[in-house]
Amino acid sequence: MISRRLLLGLGAALTLFPVAASAQDLPDLGGRTVVIVTENAYPPLQFVDPKTGDAIGWEYDAVAEMAKRLNFTAEYQNTSWDAMIQAVSDGQYDMGMTGITITEERGEKVDFSDPYMRSEMHMLVRADEERFTDAASFKAFADGLVGAQAGTTPFYVAVYDVLDGDEGNARIKLFETFGASVQALRTGDVDLVLTDGTAGQGYVESSGGALKMIGEPLGTEDFGFIFPKGSDLVAPINAAIAALKADGTFDALNRKWFLDYELGQ
Q1: Closest Cα partner for 98 from 177, 155, 174, 173?
Q2: Distance, CA of 186 to chain centre
Q3: How far is Cα 190 from Cα 97, in angstroms, rounded to an integer?
Q4: Which residues lie across from 196 on neighbouring strands?
């Protein structure tokens, strides 16, 4: 279980945006079905429960609450990270979620909701790692390999903030899922995975002492849900986000998933 002291020690690694002044009347979506795509590989935001095989997490709970308040039915589909943004852009799905960082480049393909969470990028390594201690020493460690998913924030941070700006750098090993890159870290196939503090702490806590995070945070990122361009769902979801911040629901979800839930137990 992630202790309150440990979470507070992360500083801004998990920071909700300012609470709205008051809750608001929310739109009624008339019971429509909203098809939502996710990856289920980003604990504790969304992942497969190792005990039950069910898909669970912070985002699932948040969307379930939104569905009740906005009167829609959530239908979930799965795809890889590489395919997700383009698939939503093409209209194959109504909405996407998997801790997606809001960027201008992605905003050219999809519409984002308002941010629902902010996180900072951290270096995740094996617990016995002593060859490097921060981004600068990893860059100088010429044999060090970093695992990442192409097109993700960790990939670009690895390229431009840790390595030499070459997106084809041979020191970057690509994986289809974040979970696969973490498994490669544990088995010694790579030496570093970059992750926001949210997922990183989840993996550290569930690793049985096999993993740790090192160095200073490498930057901040804001998470949002994604939609096809021009989607009529953006405004209702934004209204629901504001209401859930205002009435303490997001605070309760943070306590549940970042303080109380024992990942993998």
Answers
A1: 177
A2: 20
A3: 27
A4: 121
As a three-state string, the secondary structure of 50-115 is CCCCCEECHHHHHHHHHHHHHCEEEEEEECCHHHHHHHHHCCCCCEECCCCECCHHHHCCEEECCC
Which of 102-106, 136-140, 199-203 has the lowest average pLDDT?
199-203
The beta-strand segments (E) located in 162-247 are 172-174, 192-196, 211-214, 220-223, 226-228
Query: 75 CB contacts (<8 Å, ≥6 apart)?
Result: 33, 34, 35, 36
Tokens 């951290």 locate to 122
The band of 12, judged by pLDDT with boundaries at 50, 70 and 90, is: very low
**What's the start-to-end Cα distance of the chain, in Å?**
9
Cβ distance 95 to 227 under 8 Å? Answer: yes
What's residue 143's pLDDT? Answer: 96
Q: How far is CA 221 from the centre of its chain?
A: 10
φ and ψ at residue 108, rounded to 5 degrees? -75, -20
- The CA angle 162-208-221, to the nearest 5 degrees, is 35
Mean pLDDT of the chain: 87
Of 16 and 261, the one with more pLDDT: 261
Q: What pLDDT sits at residue 259?
A: 65
Does residue 46 register a pLDDT over 50? yes
Tell me what the mean pLDDT of segment 209-216 comes to. 95
Considering the entire predicted model, what is its pTM? 0.68
Share of the chain above pLDDT 90, in %: 68
For residue 247, which of 99, 66, 72, 101 has the smallest C-alpha distance? 66
Task: Determine how β-strand 55-56 pairs with β-strand 46-48.
Answer: antiparallel
CA distance 176 to 138: 23
